[in-house]
């Protein structure tokens, strides 16, 4: 984790601004008025930071879903894969594709600050992972993608926690 130095400067109008020095250039944000609770003054900065973390997490989910799709496709194309496993893998492939298709909607919801849409998309993605695992459970077969699904479920859950409980749009 890197620490970004923060400086506070007073403008001639007595407004406060935060200036962040970082490798991508300085950014200045208006601060809350001085009479606001100091913990609330951090909300804007914390939210911007959390949104950045959320976007990185969404990219990681996309990458892991592509990896899962590749892995399941490879298993499905293996001639020794049993028909019962192949049917479950097809369910997983369909669900991974839905997760990949939702990325744009998730990023749009973040960009527009639409917390309800973001929550709905991420919840739907979690359901897609559970649908994959449920296919194997219903067939009474040990899932060959259980570890991948578990990791994806954790990543999506983390994103939901950040989006619903920590980010204030």
How do the strands and helices of this protein lay out in sequence?
Blueprint (H helix, E strand, L loop, with lengths): L5 E5 L5 E5 L6 E4 L7 H40 L5 H30 L2 H24 L7 H21 L3
Antiparallel strand pairs: 1-2, 2-3
Helix pairs in contact: 1-2, 1-4, 2-3, 3-4
Keywords: Disulfide bond, Signal
Family: Belongs to the PMEI family.
Organism: Hibiscus sabdariffa
Give the beta-strand count. Answer: 3
What shape does the CA trace take?
elongated
Distance between the termini: 24 Å
- Contiguous runs where pLDDT drops below 50 for at least 5 residues: 1-33
Number of helical segments with 4 or more residues: 4
* Proportion of helical residues: 55-70%
Protein name: Pectinesterase inhibitor domain-containing protein
Keywords: Disulfide bond, Signal
Family: Belongs to the PMEI family.
Question: What would you note in describing this structure?
Answer:
The chain has 169 residues and is mostly helical. It is 68% helix and 8% strand. It is elongated and about 50 Å long. The two termini are 24 Å apart. The relative contact order is 0.12. The model is unreliable at 1-33 (pLDDT under 50).
Provide a compact summary of the structure:
With 169 residues, the chain is mostly helical. It contains four helices and three strands.
């Amino acid at each position: 984790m890197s620490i970004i130095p923060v400086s506070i400067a007073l403008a001639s109008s007595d407004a406060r601004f935060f200036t962040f020095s970082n490798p991508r250039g300085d950014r200045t944000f208006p601060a809350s008025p001085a009479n606001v609770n100091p913990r609330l003054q951090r909300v804007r900065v914390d939210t911007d930071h959390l949104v950045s973390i959320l976007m990185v997490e969404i990219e990681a989910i996309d990458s892991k879903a592509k990896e899962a799709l590749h892995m399941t496709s490879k298993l499905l194309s293996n001639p020794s894969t049993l028909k019962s496993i192949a049917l479950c893998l097809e369910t997983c492939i369909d669900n991974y594709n839905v997760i990949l298709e939702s990325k744009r909607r998730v990023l749009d919801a973040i960009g527009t600050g639409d917390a309800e849409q973001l929550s709905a998309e991420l919840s739907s993605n979690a359901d897609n992972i559970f649908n994959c695992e449920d296919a194997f459970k219903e067939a009474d077969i040990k899932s060959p993608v259980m570890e991948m699904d578990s990791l994806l479920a954790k990543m999506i859950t983390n994103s939901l926690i950040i989006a619903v409980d920590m980010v204030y749009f």
